[in-house]
């Protein structure tokens, strides 16, 4: 089974512009998201997916400097951008991450992947029924399912965001929700910071 992580990133941010490229412990914030995804035992490749506007060329330059695959696509139709990003790698599963969550935990990524595979789900996450702190969000989606919904006639909000159409239609798709249990200890750190979540 081939599994890729696609990190959604963009320069524009109304609250904190260019936050994905801000320095965090000696590297751009986005670098830490990539490295944490790469620490997953189940993810085969990590790709950054960005809008094709001129301002986002800064992210392309960052990706080139750090030897990270990057795909550009439609700025508003993020669903289509995700599908076209994934097509290049022909995966079975896509792990969707966002570029502004530098504390995403590879242990949680692997746990959600395992839950998804064990239940043969279309969509599995810890973001719908939230039991992990914000910033640890992970979504795992069957690539064939993503292709299927991308071919449907959808509302604009379902194109702008990748997964809502899935979890808003539990009668059409097999959903699983990751429920945190016990104490979660991140498996890698940023700089000298060690965080404990209980």
Ranges where pLDDT stays below 50 over 5 or more residues in a row are: 192-198
State the CATH superfamily name: Spore Coat Polysaccharide Biosynthesis Protein SpsA, Chain A
Helix content: 25-40%
Main beta-sheet annotation: 7 strands, mixed
Tell me the count of domains.
Answer: 1
Give the H and E element order. EEEHEHEHEHEEHHHE
CATH architecture: Alpha-Beta Complex
Instruction: Provide the CATH topology.
Output: Spore Coat Polysaccharide Biosynthesis Protein SpsA, Chain A
Distance between the termini: 32 Å
Radius of gyration: 16 Å
Q: Looking at the structure, what is the overall shape? A: globular
Instruction: Report the portion of residues in β strands.
Output: 15-25%
Question: Summarize this, please?
Answer:
The chain has helices spanning about 30-40, 55-65, 80-85, 105-120, 145-150, 155-160, 165; strands spanning about 5-10, 25, 25-30, 45-50, 70-75, 95-100, 125, 140, 175. Helix 3 (about 80-85) packs across helix 5 (about 145-150).
